């Protein structure tokens, strides 16, 4: 079982890193400001690549979550379920978002151009980010691993603040270009955290240390 968990954590990290590379390659191929979801919008040349990236995140995140399913937070309010469950919820929502993309231009959640498809995609993406941030918060109280706890706390706060600010800029059509940059930064930080979480699991498994030492 330990070997399977080690393979899952390492493979998960590789898949997630590949997803991040694809997302940034797709972003750099578009010479204008746009939000992350618009990479997968109907009619975009990057749509298939973005869908593939989301599926890699789903597969990699699910594998990492399985490898770390015994990790728990020591904070009472965060122990109702494990970080793994939060990650699985996020993965399920990202899977939905990869199949139900936003329409051309990814319209804002109001106005005549916004429809049910856009609403469902936006809702899934927002809830997925929230679940991922919750997993970070849970991991920020990991026992016996100070570095992971500090990194998770800092990343969780940063992702929530940066993504929230970018979302508000988009909603109010204020500094849209800057807001889109903020969203890409938040996405990168969230994916980087997942890689670090998986790497910590892999390192402890390779050293034959118990997962309980992580959380």
Rounded mean pLDDT score: 88
What low-confidence regions span 5 or more consecutive residues with pLDDT below 50? Answer: none
CATH architecture: Up-down Bundle
> Any idea what the radius of gyration is?
17 Å
The helix/strand series, from N terminus to C terminus, equals: HHHHHH
- Structural class based on helices, strands and sheet pairing: mainly alpha
Features:
single chain; 215 residues; mainly alpha; Rhopdopsin 7-helix transmembrane proteins
Give an account of the 3D structure.
This protein is mainly alpha-helical and 215 residues long. The mean pLDDT is 88. 68% of the residues lie in helices and 0% in strands. It has a single domain, classed as Rhopdopsin 7-helix transmembrane proteins, CATH 1.20.1070. α1 runs antiparallel to α6 and α4 packs antiparallel against α5. The chain contains 6 helices and no strands.
SSE blueprint:
Layout: H1 2-28, H2 47-67, H3 83-99, H4 116-139, H5 146-171, H6 176-206
Give a quick rundown of the structure.
Helices cover 68% and strands 0% of the residues. It is mostly helical and 215 residues long. The model has no long low-confidence stretch (mean pLDDT 88).
């Amino acid at each position: 079982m330990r070997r399977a968990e080690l393979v899952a954590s390492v493979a998960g990290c590789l898949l997630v890193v590949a997803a991040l590379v694809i997302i940034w390659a797709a972003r750099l191929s578009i010479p204008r400001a746009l939000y992350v979801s618009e990479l997968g919008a109907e009619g975009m040349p990057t749509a298939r690549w973005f869908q593939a990236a989301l599926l890699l995140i789903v597969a990699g995140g699910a594998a990492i979550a399985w490898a770390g399913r015994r990790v728990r937070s020591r904070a009472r309010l965060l122990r109702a379920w494990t970080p793994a469950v939060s990650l699985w919820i996020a993965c399920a929502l990202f899977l939905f978002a990869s199949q139900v993309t936003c329409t051309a231009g990814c319209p804002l959640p109001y106005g005549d151009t916004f429809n049910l498809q856009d609403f469902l995609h936006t809702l899934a993406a927002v809830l997925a980010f929230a679940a991922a941030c919750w997993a970070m918060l849970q991991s920020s109280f990991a026992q016996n691993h100070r570095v992971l706890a500090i990194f998770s706390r800092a990343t969780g706060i940063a992702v929530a603040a940066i993504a929230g600010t970018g979302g508000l800029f988009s909603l109010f059509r204020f500094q849209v270009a800057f807001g889109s940059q903020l969203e890409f930064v938040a996405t990168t930080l969230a994916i980087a955290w997942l890689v670090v979480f998986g790497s910590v699991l892999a390192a402890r498994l390779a050293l034959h240390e118990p997962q309980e030492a992580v959380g």
